[in-house]
Write a structure and sequence with these properties.
By secondary structure, this protein is an alpha/beta fold. The protein has one domain. It is built from three helices and seven strands. It has a seven-stranded mixed β-sheet with strand order 1-2-3-4-5-6-7, sandwiched between helices. It starts with a helix and ends in an 11-residue tail after the last strand.
């Protein structure tokens, strides 16, 4: 699992995740890992395979704003532009931000190619992004999300 590789690179001591085939119950999130010495949450991940952007934001992304974690990520298949618009609208209304909060959005297309963006909170609760951080789909297949 790719997320376990990320957890190893963060030197995590423990990972918790949902695995429906073995009935491993969800621990707060679909996946999270903790620091070896600090016990802080290093990575918090939610995923939604529906193509419904409203479901991605309302059912999964919104959990992440209440979690204190170094990295917070949502993995999804819905149209990126609509997901980002809904996420930004929610984040503009949310009052519990800390400066520096950031959210990573990983869009996986139907061929398994991944593109990633981040949205950040700057001073005065200014929401910045989405900022492209990775694009693995060819330019002619890329959907502009700005």
């Amino acid at each position: 699992m790719a997320l376990h590789t990320v957890a190893e690179s963060l030197e995590a001591s423990a990972c918790y995740y949902t695995e429906r085939t073995t009935k491993n119950a969800e621990f707060m999130l679909d996946f999270c890992c903790m620091g070896r010495e600090t016990h802080e949450m290093l990575l918090a991940v939610e995923s939604e395979w529906s193509t419904d952007a409203k479901k991605v934001i309302d059912d999964d992304f919104q959990k992440l704003v209440y979690i204190r974690s170094r990295y917070r990520m949502v993995i999804f298949r819905a149209e990126p532009k609509e997901v980002h618009q809904r996420a930004k609208a929610f984040l503009c209304e949310f009052q519990g931000h800390l400066v520096g909060d950031s959210y990573i959005f990983a869009w996986i297309d139907w061929e398994g190619k991944v593109s990633g963006w981040k949205i950040m909170v700057e001073p005065n609760n200014q929401i910045v992004g989405p900022i492209l951080i990775q694009r693995s789909v060819p330019d002619n297949q890329y959907h502009d999300v700005t």
